[in-house]
Amino acid sequence: MIFLITAFYHEAKPFIKYFKLKNFQCSKFEIFSNNNFILIISGEGFIKSAIATTFLLSKFKTVDKDIALNVGICGAKKKDFSKGDVILCHKIINHHSQKAFYPDILVNHQMKEGILESFLIPVKKNNLKGEIEGDIIDMEGAGFFESASVFLPPHNIHCIKIVYDFLDYKKIEKEEVSELIEKNIPIIENFINSLLELNIRVYEKPINEEKLKDIIEKLKNSLHLTVSMTYELEKYLKSYIIRKGDIPKEISEFFYIDVKNKKERKDYFEKLKKFLYT
Amino acid sequence: MKSSKNFSILRPFSHIYIEKDVLSHPITELILKKFPRSILIEIETYKEIFSRSKQNYKLQEMSRKLILAKKRGEFIYPGPPLCPNFGHHYFYYTTLILNCIFSCDYCFLKGMYSSAHIVVFVNIEDYFKEIDILLKKHPIYLSLSYNTDLMALEKIVPFFSMFMEYIDLKMDLIIEVRTKSAEYKILEKLKPKENVILSWTLLPKEIIKKFEPKTPNLELRLHAIKKALEYGWKVRLNFDPLIFIENWKEIYLRFIGEIFKEIEPHKIYDISIGVFRIPKDYFKRMKKIFTNEITLFPYEEDKKSLTYPYELRKEMIDFFLQNISTNIPNEKIFII
User: Fold this and answer.
1) Best residue in B3, B5, B7 to probe A by mutation, most A CBs within 10 Å?
2) Do A106 and B10 touch (CB under 8 A)?
3) Both A159 and A242 in a single domain?
4) Which residue, of A203, A222, A242, is where some domain finishes?
5) Rounded CA gap, A88 and A158, in Å?
6) Residue B156 maps to which CATH number?
7) Among the partner residues B5, B49, B62, nearest to A106 by beta-carbon distance
8) A 174-233: CB under 8 A from B
9) ipTM of the predicted structure?
10) Which DSSP helix (H) or strand (E) runs through B98?
11) Structural domain total, chain A
């Protein structure tokens, strides 16, 4: 599942349209979803972003291969970036606690990279105080990242920010925000697809667990195996599958033995182990 | 979802994380010159990256990042119980670098660390100071390369050469450098040292292909050993770990033959033999991430570590010993 967290409706709107997301009934937040995506609108600020992220990732019970992205607009500190640039953040700083977060960036992408610094209040050039390490500034990234880190591995958590202004804005034009995000959706989608491919490489199990379970059950019943013997048998079977690619056909010969006593059970179990490790 | 048009993994060291305290350290500058295209990210401490929760070692191995840090606290550790001391009472090891570029399937580092990224502690001068202090108390036998392969990383950071320079005339300090590297060219530029043991880990080519495909092959390693001997270095051969594989007797017999076809046995300083073993906790973590022949073997517990069942390990050691002792005298063989 891909979880998207945006601060405002106008940041979410292009995704809702592009991925054809439907309204998901929820009294606490505005949520939109389809089979692959769940999007939540958090509201402004990193506290709200952290709350929405925690709500979403706990309500939908994440697994490690899920992906969480915070997408939204930001202000750029320097003119190194242009309006509309899409930035993948490699360091995310909570300006107030000075705590920093780092995603694992393992796949190639078409975005620029930079440091994001999150503030509790809107930042403008004329109210900048002290040193700012971030290349770009927002109000949500750090809250999102800290929360998502509780649930997901760092290669599946990312902040993607689109430059809207240079800390000199007067008013945020909602339609313009949607347009900037819409333009960058193909790049973001490509990044999401790369993350999905990356995850396939690690979370795909080489063993058919259902088939294995079925065989263990049959052997457990025919040989009257104890709990510890069953556990040991599972290890031997998995090891055999990894070495040879599949469960040996000859194992079915053990399905129809009905052991009469403990000694017989032990003998057959040793025979089975030897068969699986030769 | 459409499939990704351009899926590819980022090159190793695409990102380099640098602790603020070592930004202008000469070793940092030396390393950074070698990676002009990498993205540099300042950090407070290496643990911000290395010790994050829920990292995936297997994925990180595909695109390892480099972390340049300052070692603080302890620099020298007492030798671990699962490692041999080769008869030296004052046995220590040190960790200039955490993790290795080779990614062997059976490597304990996969279970020891939560991250596959490589940490280089650039402040080598502080290690030298600590060793100097310890040397005032007693002689030291120091293993340099337990948690990495220092010689294999020499092109990135010349710690091996720096240690060779430091050790000159320090006869109370004996150094062991473990490696699977084939980089003998480093040795061309250095004078052989009486108190340095270059310690090559060797495995049969079938096992190298299956469990450590990123390492130099057996021929290359043997060539490097021959060169090291030719230049006058002391060479130890590590047959540790011995790895169980189908037809292992046939494979190991051929392997011993191949080694001594290339290397004159009397030139070897000594050898060590030990079957695969791993601390139980490391194995548990390794198994969570890696599903392969190594992690799925039904091991037995022996002194808080996991290893092959007693009969198998006895058979493996006896077999290997019997076949190698025709080449190497018993007093030069250490069994672990």
Assistant:
1) B7
2) yes
3) no
4) A203
5) 7
6) 3.80.30.30
7) B62
8) 189-190, 192-194, 196-198, 201-202, 205-207, 232
9) 0.91
10) strand B97-98
11) 2
Containing structural domain, residue B113: 15-335
CA distance B80 to B321: 24
Q: Which residues of B touch A197 (CB under 8 A)?
A: 3-4, 7
Q: Name residue, tokens 């911000």.
A: B48
Chain B, 9-28: which have a CB under 8 Å from a chain A CB?
9-10, 14-15, 17
Of A107, A133, A189, the CB nearest to B10: A107
Same domain for A245 and A144: no
Residue range(s) defining the domain that contains residue A220: 209-276
What's the pLDDT at A26? 87
User: In Å, how far is B112's CA from the nearest CA of chain A?
Assistant: 18
Identify the CATH number of the domain in which residue A98 sits: 3.40.50.1580
pLDDT for position B5: 60
Dihedral pair phi/psi, residue A64, rounded to 5°? -60, -30
Within a domain: B9: no
C-alpha B212/C-alpha B203 separation (Å) is 9
- Rounded to 5°, angle at Cα A116 from A115 and A119: 145
Looking at the fold, whether A94 and A167 belong to one and the same domain comes out as yes
Q: Is residue B2 part of a domain?
A: no
- Asked, for residue B7, whether it belongs to a domain, the answer is no
Q: Does the residue B285 lie in any domain?
A: yes
**Tens digit of each residue's pLDDT (9 = 90 or more) over B153-169:** 999 999 999 999 999 88
Residues of B in contact with A152 (CB under 8 A): 54
Write out pLDDT tens, residues B2-27: 555 678 999 999 999 999 999 999 99
On whether both A84 and A185 belong to a single domain, the answer is: yes
Neighbours of B191 (CB within 10 A): 11
Residue B108: CB atoms within 10 Å = 21
User: What is each CA distance from A102 to A53, A148, A198, B13, in whole angstroms?
Assistant: 17, 12, 18, 15
- Cα–Cα distances (Å) from B242 to A205, B189, B273, B282, B291, in that order, read 28, 33, 7, 19, 20
The overall average pLDDT reported for chain B is: 93
Do B182 and B220 touch, CB atoms closer than 8 A? yes
Q: What does the block give as tokens for B214? A: 């990123």
Contact between chains at B296 and A196 (C-beta distance less than 8 A) = no
Q: How many CB atoms lie within 10 A of CB B207?
A: 23
Strands B305-307 and B300-302: antiparallel
pLDDT (0 to 100) of residue B1: 58
**What was the pLDDT predicted at B305?**
92
B251 three-class SS: helix
Q: What share of chain A is helix, strand, coil (3-state, %, to 5)?
A: 45, 20, 35
Decide if B123 contacts B94 (C-beta within 8 A): no
Residues A55 and A145 in one domain: yes
How many structural domains compose chain B? 1
Gyration radius from chain A CA atoms: 26
Same domain, A133 and A223: no
Spatial separation of the C-alpha atoms in residues A156 and A25, rounded to whole Å: 26
* pTM of the predicted model as reported, rounded to 2 decimal places: 0.91
